What does this fold into?
Amino acid sequence: MWGHQSAARLPDAYPQFFSRGEGCRLWDADGREYIDFMCAWGPMVLGYRDADVEAAVDAQRQRGNGLNGPTERLVELAELMVETVPHADWAMFQKNGTDATTACAMIAREATAKRKLLLATGAYHGAVPWCNPYPNGATAEDRAHVIRYEYNDDASLERAAAEAGNDLAGIFVSAFKHDLGKTHQRPNQSFAAAARNICDKTGAALIVDDVRAGFRLHMGGSWELVGVRPDLSAWSKAIANGYALGAVTGNEKFREAAGRIFVTGSFWCGAVSMAAALASIRKMKDIGAVDMMQRMGQRLRDGIAAQARSHGVALQQSGPVQMPVILFENDDDRRKGWLFCTEALKRGIYLHATHTMFLSAAHTAADIDRTLEATDAALAEVARQFA
Amino acid sequence: MWGHQSAARLPDAYPQFFSRGEGCRLWDADGREYIDFMCAWGPMVLGYRDADVEAAVDAQRQRGNGLNGPTERLVELAELMVETVPHADWAMFQKNGTDATTACAMIAREATAKRKLLLATGAYHGAVPWCNPYPNGATAEDRAHVIRYEYNDDASLERAAAEAGNDLAGIFVSAFKHDLGKTHQRPNQSFAAAARNICDKTGAALIVDDVRAGFRLHMGGSWELVGVRPDLSAWSKAIANGYALGAVTGNEKFREAAGRIFVTGSFWCGAVSMAAALASIRKMKDIGAVDMMQRMGQRLRDGIAAQARSHGVALQQSGPVQMPVILFENDDDRRKGWLFCTEALKRGIYLHATHTMFLSAAHTAADIDRTLEATDAALAEVARQFA
It folds into this structure.
């Protein structure tokens, strides 16, 4: 098994294979049931097998999926993205987050005729050589024009931009700092303003990588929360409630360059995923899915904070409440973190000790309360073993 | 519209949007019906909305698609690929052809700790900077370690390998030479043997890019036809009858390296596409889909050849009969080719003048005969206008 879904990266108790999902619950290949806080690593945002999304999928499947060109769903979805996302004057669609971030890099370089891309140290933007967090199978040249800066550090960003000089094509920023195993941080106002300002001065593209966070923090794009609008955004995970889709949105300034690059894939025009996205985005707006996830995320955070105090366990919860990470104090080897998660797993709750977790609109107060019963027992075990 | 599905690259008569597919027929957004010889640019191989594939999709959708890890479908599909493809000792799955070719490049470099990749001039291996046929949005460094050779030219391949010296990671070969607008050529025996021999001597990976041709020429991989087995193969289009999937198969020599690279995508473990692939590959074997496509492709080729002679139009049909390209003599500006296709289009037949076309197992003798009525009229018009 490869990539982020390899259970070899997880404690032994974690299952590698799954058999079924329904709402916020999933079942492993041995039939064990879990309340899921990974949500298929993000894509599941309304619940597994959401009835409205599946109905749209059924309807589209009666007509067709991949044909010799797109269906009208593509136009409808591009219009919906432009209507929903304030910075967007156009949209194009792919299959994965990496497709979307790579297309953003190409558009930025094509538009500016410059080469340097600024990426934050430790930020994840995909799993191909130009941005892969692991060097295996890549060459030095794949990253020849990547310059690193520290997220939320204006001075470091300014230094990176100065190093790029007049060869700056774009600045990639994660929706928020969500590096693996690190405290999650929202972008601070001065950092966001500095990024926007450098791009305005140089003509470089400000690119928000909203693959992980898109449609979970704000329907208009995550940086609406700091009031800064990007030139380009990359979207994927939560766009179609689990159906394979990526998207790039952009403003007028980058429209022509987006039309000049050659990017494509055999399945990029598949209408079923687009029908799923239309149904999913409309439903998220209708039911106020972001608010729902925030309320349940806050309930979980408050509950765990109280339990941690009561057990005398020092931990830190960070990230937006609907995309949390829980890190234990003095736990560099993650023994506390994985003990906590394993104890929760035994009690039917699927958590992760180092990666961003995800709430969905299918998590109810009863699900959170059931979860808190398990985390209370898990924290008791952490307290006992690390007393 | 971007990429290969942009109708801006086609004559005005060609529709941009489609509404429906069924068997070998598709309908554009204005309701016009066509017998389709592009097959969604390859993926449709058993017919749009094939009942058996759709039943497998229905069954899987009742259980789930993307979960926190793969379902048992992944194991079943890997086993089926290994059983079906003689060179394969293992398989891994992605979403697009470009994902698969890029993973092959990474595996070759990781396994050999070398960098140079040999690619044939004009060969298409995907739409990202390291292999994109168009330079827009790429930097020179993206191709720093790519060396070109001429397909089917042993001496040119030997020269390219010599240029790589002791830094040769892999040789990419298309299943056959299917460059846009060029005569298609099967790999000749001495070229195939030379490629295998260089890799055996140097330890480099012989990589067959079977994205376009895979499962249309031979169920065991296209190079079974020349009796040469690759180390790695990239698969995508025809693997799941239109559902989004890519695959890499490899032999034991490259297994460990494949496990050491980090490649992943949010939707790569989606079980619905894998269920579709299982049903599609099994059905293709059961019904002898390759033979069916060959018989219908031969019927089409013979018919058009006879018509061309009778109209006194000089044309060349090349490529395997089930993946043909039809090029007219003295037609550098493609006016004859696109006139032919446009006249056929008016008569309900969807052809392409420069790209590989595709037969499917859903094309019947009656469909081919109906097509030949249209091509006869279209060739008459070519003869009339270019007399």
Residues 289-311 of chain B form the longest helix (23 residues). The radius of gyration of chain B is 21 Å.
